[in-house]
Amino acid sequence: MLEIIHQTFVCEGSGFGDVEEGEDRVCRSRSQPKSDPPRQGLRIATIVVRHRHQGGRFVMRRVAVQRLARLSTRYTHASAPLSAAPAAAVDKSTEAATGQAQQIVFPREGPGVNYALNWALCAKGVAPKGEAFRNLRESELRNLNAAIPEPKKTTTVYARGSYSAGATAISKPHFNRLYKEVTASLTSSQKLYVHDGAIGSSPRSDAKVRTISDNPSSALLFRSILEPAPTRQVSQHEFPFTVYIASNYSPSDVGSVGLANEDKEAFVVIDYDRSAMILGGSAFTDVETVKKALAALTAPSILSRDALPLSARLLVQGGATVVVFAPESVIQKNAGLLNASVSPDLGLVWTKEGVARLFASKEDGAPNLYKAPSSVVLVTADSTGAVPEISKVTPEKAGALFVAGYNGEDFQPGYQAGPGSVDPVELAKGFTAMLESTNIPAFLVNASVLAEHDLLNYIESTVTEKLPKSKGKKPSESAGTGQSNTARVSGSKKPE
């Protein structure tokens, strides 16, 4: 049995590189004297293969192939059993360069057969034994009976990394074992569906993601979640984040991979340090959990690009934009707030250039980047009477409120409602610095003392700073005195 591990070519002046279908090169063998003229149009490809002997021992061998595009279509995919022809069929200079050469019979490329894609998937741990399709259109996926069923329950999220919060911990050895089992399951699939996209609507601050799935329905889901990304290159280097969706996989021993028994049929596992996420069983149907996990997976990368990945919503009213942090329990009860949001999804990316969505918009022609916010609003739900309906706060106070994330019942640092991969204190530093450098005003609004229809009016008033008259404390007073839970956590003083 021969298993392809990697494919390269030798080209004058460029060393090794990926073999591109249908591309002729001026090539010479590494053993060919430089005084000899190079061969125009000759493709000399070197494939490193692993040969398994009956005794179980592996021997690494290099195989030379000429003009891959013109070879036989005997097999239907690149990782099928390989047919070897006499070595005499290969150019003598190539044979000398590789030591021992065989001629390999490759299929022609077509739907489901793409060598560049197969090599890229191999680099991600998946060596397709069947067909692999990339970026199928929605109509093509629908023709494959793709659909997104309703989730049966909320899926448990496991995570590990240099920083991890809001998820069940999993060890590195457990993740590695799970990774091997999942990639083996995907490798054995008859059909694979690859979709490439991005988290973040602005190319200046997005995070490129590649999904590899054994189910067309999951490809349809990610097609609706991820922002479009350039598809002209298949190289794995263009997509540093990988999501493995193994809907047909269920661990035989959940304990050996660090999962609880009740999560055997559906689980989400993230390794932040490895930039990888695994969705097992029916987990991909839990769309909200998947989105939160994607946001956490890519947050460190987005932050490293001088952008702030935030669990917030962007409102657009009369040409003005407002960034709103609020408990989801408050948001979901307020239809006006949801309608004013540019996206029903939680999450945005704030940069000095403006604000970008985190996930794809369902509206045609939606902008990739919205202008910088006119104001920032942090919503709490305090019923103690210590926090007024609305008050303007300093950048330092806003940062403290952001870290606390008090929602009236408990604390969600950074207003993070799911797994987190970035320390909220680090995010708060960037958040405070952004407010200070842009002079964008920040406000605290107490939803507990407002009627539902009033909340949107109060948020809109922050654009002009013509604040409604407070029925409780005056707006000039502190948004959180010594009696306030928020103030006790933030440790902040009254704003001047």
Main traits of this protein?
disordered C terminus; lyase; PEP_carboxykinase_N; globular; disordered N terminus; 12 helices; 3 domains; alpha/beta; five-stranded mixed sheet; phosphoenolpyruvate carboxykinase (ATP); nucleotide-binding; Phosphoenolpyruvate Carboxykinase, domain 3
Description:
It contains 12 helices and 24 strands. The protein is α/β, with parallel strands linked by helices. It folds into 3 domains: 2-108, no CATH class; 122-303, Phosphoenolpyruvate Carboxykinase, domain 1 (3-Layer(aba) Sandwich); 308-490, Phosphoenolpyruvate Carboxykinase, domain 3 (Alpha-Beta Complex). Strands 8, 9, 10, 11, 12, 13, 14, 15 and 16 form a 9-stranded mixed beta sheet that branches. Strands 18-19-22-24-23 form a 5-stranded mixed beta sheet. The chain has a 3-stranded antiparallel beta sheet with strand order 1-4-5. A hairpin with a 2-residue loop joins β18 (313-317) and β19. Mean pLDDT is 78; it is low at 1-34, 36-54, 56-98 and 472-496.
